[in-house]
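Example record

One chain of 224 residues, shown exactly as stored in the release files.
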Amino acid sequence: MFSTSVFSVDVTRIGPHCNPVPCVLTGRNKSLTLVSRDEVVAGDILLIRPGIEHAVICSGGINVMYLDGLSWAGSSGLAERLQGQLANLAIDAIFRGSDAQAALRQRLDSGAAQFPPHLMAVIEDLIAEPMSRMTQHELADRLQVERTQALRMFKAATGQTFRRFKQWSGLQHAARKIASGELVRTAAMDAGFADTAHLTRTFRASFGLTPSEAIAGLAKAWPV
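Predicted structure tokens for this chain:
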């Protein structure tokens, strides 16, 4: 149900940002290095914890895979190095698509709780319609609970607040549009952002790149 997005970008550095969901990062030619305020982690294949601001040094470019809805089960502060069979599975997930991605999610899953079908239906609708203007009260009505409880249920299922999840879904939609050659202003409108400046600010805060920097990197990147 949750989306898995994969991007390949030819850049040498990614600026400070916080990914809102766990992600797998690989150097396309060499190892990469993550730098946060408190920690430095280097490796070939890294599973990055969400919510911690960090920069990336990535000579030769990167492949990145975002794993929406996956709970963080690691013990490390910033990131964990993936090795052996798990590393091979991560590479397969990046290059071979949905079956390998499902297998990787199963390996990394810490035993997620079961949630009501009507909550899962709401999440699926928001992923499918990034321009959705669903309000907190509409969420509560669909879940048939009061607003505060609905927001708690949503965060427990997704790992994100209701507002952040909608923004992240729109941002990924815009990123995919840009990767396919769409103009930034068109991608911003299609994804529900107020304007190009709004998309650019949000893009940089979550990806560490502006849309124009990403476009330049995509133009040089190997296809994924």
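Notes: Strands lie at 4-9, 13-17, 23-27, 32-36, 40-43, 45-48, 54-57, 62-67, 79-81.
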